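Predict the assembly for these two chains.
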Amino acid sequence: MKFASSYEPGEYESDIYAAWEYAGIFNPTTPTKPIDDDGDGVDDREEGNKKRNTYSIVMPPPNANGNLHIGHGLTVALEDSLTRYYRLRGDSAWYVPGADHAGFETWVVYEKFLEKQGHTRFEYDRNELYAKVWDFVAEQRGNMELQLRALGASCAWDDLTFTLDENVIDRVYTTFEKMWNDGLIYRGEKLVNYCPKHRTAFADIEVTHKDEPGTLWDIEYKLADDPEKALIVSTTRPETLFGDTAVAINPEDKRYKDLVGKKVKLPLTDRTIPIIADEHADPEYGTGVVKITPAHDFDDFEVGERHDLERIQVISESGKMINVPEKYYDLTTKECRKQVLKDLKEQGLLKDEHKITHSVAHCYKCDTVLEPMLKEQWFVDVEKLAKEAMKHIEADEIKFFPENKKKVLLNYYNNLRDWNISRQIPWGIAIPMFKKADEDATDEPDWIFDRRTNLKEIEKGGVRYVRDEDTFDTWFSSSHWPIICTNWTEENYNPYYPLNVMETGADLLFSWVSRMIMMGVYITGEVPFREVYMHGMVLDSKGQKMSKSKGNVINPMELVTKYGSDAFRLGIMRGRSAGMNQAFSENSVIAGRNLCNKLWNISRLIQTFVDDEDSELKNGISRGLPEVTTEDEGVSPVTTGANDPSREDAILGSFSYSTDNMGEDWICREINECLDQVEYDIKNYRFSEAVDTLYQTIWDKYADWFLESQKIFKNVGLLKTTLSTLLIALHPFAPFVTETIWQSLSWTEGFIATAKWPARLEYDPISAEEFENIRIIVSEVRGTLTALPGTNNAKKYKLLYDNDSLVEDNQFLIKTLTRVPAIDPLEGSPRGLRLALANHELYLDVPEKVVKEYKDTLTERILSVGRELDALNLRMENPNYVNRAPAHLVKETQDQIKEKEALISRLKTELELI
RNA sequence: GGACCCAUAGCUCAGUUGGCUAGAGCGUACGAUUCACAUUCGUAAGGUCGCAGGUUCAAGCCCUGCUGGGUCCACCA
C-alpha cells in the first residue's frame, strides 16, 4: 500500500474491518465452550490452557430495533479499547456482542406502528403478536450491527446473543424454577404502578416522579351516629373516595383521640367506614385527617394491611370507574373527579381547597400519569438476594469505578422493595407459570411451573392448567447477562466467568448492575464481574441532556463519516472520567482526527527514510553524513555515533536498533514512560489520561523533537522500533489508522490488532537526561528570539558559544531546531545578548541597539526569578521544614536555590553589559 | 427528608498516596512556513484553585462549616 499525503479514514476503515473479521482475529484464542479431546471427562481448558489469561467483557446489548446513539458510541470506544489492549497484552480476549429485544421500548414502537396501520393489539392473541414483533425487529437488526462495526468494535460476532435466543430463555426458566422452588417467587395482589395507556405494570424503578401543581380538597365526612359532628379530610384525589375503607388520624393527635373506633358516613354513598389511628396520618398536614383507599394508594395499601381493611377497586385497568354508584360508573377518572366535586359542593360537603405542589408518578415512556393499581403479579422476594449480594460487595469482591458507586449501591440494597417481574405486554419472555383451570381439583396447587410456554394450556396429572399471559420484566432476563454470554453452566468450569469488567452507563447501577450482582451470586455463588466501570452521560456541547424533543441529539455515525471512527473514539474519550456526565465537544473529535493525520505523516516520513536506506544498501552506498552539512563550511559535524560502524549490523534486523545520540536515548526514555503511564491508566480506567499521554508523546515529543532531530541522524532501526511501539500503544484507542499504517509500512507483518504489546526500550539514561539540556537551550533560544524586537529574528542572528562542548557537539541539531543561520565559537570578548542559561556561555549575535531595546524584558526576568528565589529561601529558613521534610526534598530545594542564584547573577551581568 | 457528586485559565476538563514556579486541549494574540503534515511549526498572554476556618514543616488535594450547581432515592392525603 502506498501512502497518500493525508489520511482519509473513509477510504480504509470498512476494508480494514472486513479484513480483521475475515481473519477471525476477534475470536478468543481459548475455547469458550467446554472441550474434552482426551475423553477424561475433565474440561481440557481447566487442565492445559491456563497459561493464557482470559479477558472477558460483554456488551450491554443495544436495542436490536434501533440505531446507535452517542452513548453507545462512548460505550464501544471504552469497551473496545479495553478489549484491544488486553488482546495485545496476549490475553484471550472475548468481547461478546449482544442485541436487546428491549421489551417495553420496542413494544411501544411496534404498537404505534400497528396503530398507523389501523390495527390494535387487541385484534391478535399473544403468540400472533410475538411473531409479528419478531419479524418487525428482524428487519431492523442489521443496522445496529453495521454501526458497531463502523465504530471498530472488535467483538466476537459468532457469539452474538439476542435477548430472546433459546439459550437465554432456557437459562431464565432454570433460574425461575430454582427461585420458585426456593420460595423466592410469590404471587401477590399488590399495588403496582400501572400505565393505563400501555396497559402494563412497571417496577418501582421505571417510574418517573415529577413535581406538579395540584389541588388539595377538604371534604367533610360526617360521623355516622352524630351528623352534627364531622371530620374534614384532605385529599388530592376526591374520585377515589368510593374506594375508601377508613379514615385515619394520628394516634398522638389529641384533637380527634375520642373518635377512634367510631364510624363516619362516606359521602355520596350509603357506606359507613371506621375511624382508625395510624402513624401514617400527619397531624401537621392539612386537617390531620386522611382518607384511606387501600386499592389506589401505596401508603393506604400499607395502612390497609396493618388494619386489615378491605380493598375496593374503583378504577379499572382502562382507567374507568367501576364498583361505584350508577351515576359515576364508566366515567374516566377525570370526569368522575369533576362530578364528585360538583355533587359534594351541592351537598355542602366541600369545605375548602388549597393549591399545592406535589409529585406525581408518570410513565417514563409516554408521560401518562400512572395509576396505582391492585393487580395479581409475580414478585421476587429480594431480601435474601440483596443480603447475599451485599456480603460479596462488602468483602470487596467487586471494584467500583468510580469508587463511590459501592456506597450508593449498598444504600440501595438496604432499602429495596420486592420486585414486580410481571409485564402485560406480549413482546418478551413468557412467564412459565400455569394456573389451575379445574376448580374441583382441590388437592392440586393453584399454580405450577412448566417450560412449555408455547402452549396456552397444558395438562398435568389429569388437571388442566392455563398459561399466565404475562411476560418477564426485561431486567429479569438481563440480570443473567454475564452468565448467559459466557455460556456459564452449573456443570462446567468456565475460565471466562466472572467477567473481568462490566462497563456500562452510570444510570444503570440500580436497574441492571444491582440485579446482575444479585442474580450472579444467587446462581453461581460468585460475583458476575470483578470490576465495574460506569461511564456518565454524554451531554450536548452546552452541557444539556440530549433529547429528541430538544432537538440537540448528536448522531455518532455522522461524526464517524465526517472525521473517521478513530477520531470519534479519541474525541469522545477525551476529558471524560468515570461516572461523570460530560459535555460532548466536536473540537475534541477534531483533535483526534488531527492526531490520526499527524501519525499518518510521521509514518510517511519514516517510510521514506527507510526506503532511502534500503536503496542505499542495495546500491552499495555506505551511510554518509547528512546532506545538510554542505551549507556549513568550516564546521566539522562530529556527532555521536553517526558513523558508528556497529550500527550497520543493528539496522539490518528490522526490529533491532541501537541508540547513538542523546535524542535517541531521550525518546526511548520518553516512550517507556509513556508505556508505563498508559498501562497504569488502562488498569485504572483512566481512558482520557491514557489518550492524552499518547497524544503528547506522539506529537510533542516524537514528532516535534525526536523526528526533527532524526532529519539529521536517521537511525532507521530505531525509527522502525519506536514507530511500531507507538502504533501498537495507540492501537487500542485508534484501531483503524494504526492498522492502515501497519499495513502500509514496508517492514511490518500481520495485523497490528494481534501484535505483541511492546517491550520497554533500552537506552542510556545519562545520555537521555543530557538531551534535556539541549531542549532547554533550544527553548531558550527560541523564546529569546521571539521576545526580541523585530520579526524574522531566527534568520538574522547567529548563536555563539564559548567553551561549550555540548553545544559544539550538537550544533547541527540545535541549528535545525532553532533555525538560526549559524552556530559559531565565540572569538574575542563576549558580544551580543547573553542567554539566561545556567552552566552555558551562549550569546545571540545581536547588535547593541537591539540589545538595549531588550533591556526591560531582562529586568522583568530578573525580578521574576528573584521572587522564586525568595520563596525558596523562605522555605530553607524554616527549621521545621529542614528537620521534618524528607531529605531529598530539602536537597532539591538547596539545588534550586543555587541554580536560581547563578541565573540571577548571569542575568545581572548581562544587564550590566548593556 | 436521606444519599451521592461537582465548583481549578474565556470554554471543556486533568491534577494518581499532601511535596514544583498548579497543567492540557480548544479559543485568543504575535510570528514562521518551498524540504512528512495549514488537519503544520514556534512563542506568548491568561488562575486569590467557590467562601471561611482548622490540621501540617508543607493543602487544589485531608478535616469542619458555609455558598452555589447537579444527580439519585424516599415522601408529599
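DSSP finds 29 helices and 30 strands in chain A. The radius of gyration of chain A is 38 Å.
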